[in-house]
Each structure stands twice: as structure tokens, then as C-alpha cells.
Design a protein that fits this description.
heterodimer; A: 187 residues; mainly alpha; two-stranded antiparallel sheet; elongated; B: 194 residues; 7 helices
């Protein structure tokens, strides 16, 4: 599932150590974003926030990890057995953000074989289960905060929504990056 | 997957895909109407949790998967902790119970094919929920960018976010089972293949 030739800032992602470091950095970025969001809201209110700045962050972060888009550390998930969303010319179907071509060789970004498809599905099962609990927890927190202080509803809502979006669009990739053994070791 | 439901003491054959699809449509229609009615009547103030309870009951009695009971076998590959406990009072009163199986194991243990289907249905459900949450985030962003949209949408921001949470949670709890029920062919067809 790993695009072996992928490098970030010159660091090869073939070793598990490097990939785990990437996951840690990614989570640090997400938490920093959420913290920045809360601080900005408390100082300037939600109306003053320009959400257009958030979408490049979503797309950029997801693109680095891959999975939802060709050209990242994780091979692209989509295949003929996916749901077609925003299909692009020559696309077999599946979740795509944009129709840009991969800059990496075909062997790293090509279709998944059967073993990789099974692994992808199993990872999504685990990710779905975790995300389900996370959503339930966020809902309970959200409802609890609303019952305690209803004026916070409009402030907390967008934060939880953006947090959930970032987590959902990256959790399967992070599970793969964290658990996949070194490429050399696997061989 | 179980081939029948037992509701109010009556056995309903669900081995045909058309029936299962009708059940899925009926469940989502009922949940949509319930959530809409709760919004119209109360704006989900103090009543949103009723929708979640309705989803849990739908899973428990019809869909299964994350809960014991229903058509889809439990997703978790282990014997339930309360497997030997008597059925709950509500199930007894409604006479909703599962048919007695030859062995205890068949009721919860998935074979390799079923595990593969479970994983694939979660992959599809994950994509759908991921896209839906992204659309919700986009709508929320538009609203933050242009507060005038609030007047156009006719719904306060707090209600909109709460509605998003309800819909997201509903899909999270039901979508993999619904995909399985929708896509699985007639059970007779599967048996004839083997």
C-alpha cells in the first residue's frame, strides 16, 4: 500500500520510522489547526473567519498522505469497486479530490492488487469503527455543551465538523502508515 | 446474513434482495420523516436524542451488524459477552426474536467471505460518509463566509450543526448494514452457486 519512491523533504517514506514521524507531525498540524480555530473564534468571532483558507489545508494535507488522491505516500484507494464521486476522464471510479495526474511512476500509483484491496478494506473497517466512536463522543460532548451553555453551539459546531472532516479524510491512511512494516523487511 | 426476521411473532422471509431493499428504503424513509418532524415541532431542542434511539432500535431489530439481532450478523468476530442472557423484555413484548439456530456459533461467527463483505461495505460506507461530512463542512464554511445565508436557509446556525450531527451519526450507525442488505444477492442464488 506504500508508494516506495515517495519522499517528503528528501526523506524516503519506505521506512516505518519515517512514516510514523509523518503521522505524528500530521496530528500535531491538525491539533494546531483546531487550537488556532478556537483562539480565532474567541477573539474575532466565527463570522470573521475566512473558510476559503481551510479548504487548501484539507486538500493539501490529504494529498500528502495519499489514498484519496494519487501521488501521496499511500497508494490511491479507488478502483472499479469504489463509489464514483467526481469521476474524471480515465478514472476507474472511487473517491477523488481533483483529476490531476500523478507525478510518480505508474507502478507506485497504479491499481491495487487483490491483497492490497483486502488490506484497504480491512483498514477502512477499523477506521470506520474508530470514527464511529469519535462521532458519537463528539455528539455527546456537543449536546452536553449545548445543554450547559446554548450560546456555544454555533462556536463549537464548526470546530467539531472540521475536526471530523480532517480525521475522516486521513484516518485509514494513517493506520496504514503506522502499521505497515518497512518495505525492506516486508520483502 | 439471516434469512428471516421475526416481528410480532410472525416470520418474514427476507432471503430475497427486493425485500431487503424495500426494508432499507422503509427504514431510511421512517428515520428521515422522524428527524424532519422533530425539527418542525421542536427544532431538535431536547428531542434530538429520540432520533438516535430510533436508529439504535432499527439496528437492533432490523439491520443488525453493530448490535445483536437483525438481519446482518454481528460485525465483531467474537461471542457476545451476554450471549447466554435471556432476551430483553422489550423484545419479548414485541415478540421480536431470532430463530433458534442449530449451533450457537453460527449466530455470531462470520466466515471468510462474510468478513470480506463486511470490510468492503465499510470501505464504501466510509467513502460516502467522508464525502457527506466534507459537504457539511463546505456548507458550514459558506455560512461563516456569508452570514446572509442564514436568512436564506431559514434555520439558525445551532440547529443546522445539530442537524448535521444527527444525520452523520445516523449514517455512521446504519450505512454498512444497509449496503450489505442492498447489494447481497438472493440467498437462493448464493446457495446454488455453492
Amino acid at each position: 500500500m506504500i508508494a516506495e519512491q515517495y519522499r517528503i523533504l528528501g526523506i524516503p517514506m519506505a521506512s516505518r520510522r519515517a512514516r510514523r514521524a509523518l503521522v505524528v507531525v500530521y496530528w500535531a498540524l491538525i491539533l494546531s489547526l483546531c487550537l488556532g480555530f478556537v483562539v480565532h473564534q474567541s477573539r474575532h468571532g466565527v463570522e470573521d473567519l475566512n473558510p476559503w483558507g481551510l479548504f487548501p489545508i484539507f486538500v493539501g494535507l490529504a494529498a500528502i498522505l495519499g489514498g484519496v488522491k494519487a501521488g501521496g505516500v499511500v497508494k490511491r484507494f479507488s478502483g472499479s469497486d469504489g463509489i464514483s464521486v467526481l469521476p474524471t476522464p480515465g478514472d476507474e471510479g472511487g473517491l477523488t479530490l481533483f483529476g490531476s495526474k500523478s507525478i510518480f511512476p505508474p507502478e507506485d500509483s497504479g491499481a491495487l492488487d487483490e491483497r492490497e484491496r483486502n488490506e484497504r478494506n480491512a483498514v477502512h473497517y477499523r477506521a470506520y469503527t474508530s470514527a464511529r466512536w469519535l462521532t458519537l463522543a463528539l455528539y455527546l460532548i456537543y449536546a452536553g455543551i449545548g445543554a450547559w451553555h446554548a450560546a456555544w453551539f454555533p462556536r463549537i459546531g464548526p470546530l467539531f465538523l472540521f475536526l471530523l472532516t480532517l480525521v475522516l479524510w486521513s484516518l485509514p491512511q494513517m493506520l496504514i502508515l503506522w502499521n505497515e512494516p518497512d518495505v525492506e523487511e516486508a520483502r | 446474513m439471516n434469512a428471516e426476521l421475526v416481528l410480532l411473532g410472525k416470520r418474514v422471509d427476507m432471503s430475497r434482495r427486493s425485500r431487503r431493499r424495500a426494508l432499507v428504503v422503509a427504514i431510511y424513509s421512517a428515520l428521515t420523516i422522524l428527524i424532519a418532524l422533530l425539527w418542525v415541532w421542536t427544532g431538535w431542542r431536547g428531542t434530538g436524542a429520540y432520533a438516535i434511539w430510533a436508529v439504535i432500535l432499527a439496528c437492533r431489530f432490523f439491520l443488525g451488524g453493530y448490535y445483536r439481532g437483525g438481519l446482518v450478523k454481528p460485525f465483531v468476530y467474537r461471542k457476545p459477552m451476554n450471549a447466554d442472557a435471556p432476551p430483553p423484555l422489550l423484545a419479548l413484548k414485541l415478540r421480536v426474536y431470532r430463530p433458534v439456530l442449530d449451533t450457537d456459533e453460527d449466530g455470531f461467527r462470520n466466515d471468510e467471505r462474510e468478513l470480506s463483505q463486511r470490510d468492503h461495505s465499510h470501505y464504501l460506507a466510509y467513502q460516502a460518509v467522508g464525502c457527506m461530512v466534507a459537504v457539511e463542512a463546505f456548507v458550514a464554511s459558506m455560512r461563516m463566509l456569508s452570514p446572509k445565508l442564514q436568512a436564506w436557509m431559514g434555520m439558525p446556525a445551532d440547529q443546522m450543526y445539530y442537524g448535521f450531527a444527527l444525520v452523520t451519526l445516523t449514517l455512521f450507525l446504519t450505512l454498512p448494514q444497509a449496503i450489505l442488505l442492498w447489494t447481497e444477492p438472493d440467498l437462493e442464488e448464493i446457495r446454488s452457486r455453492h
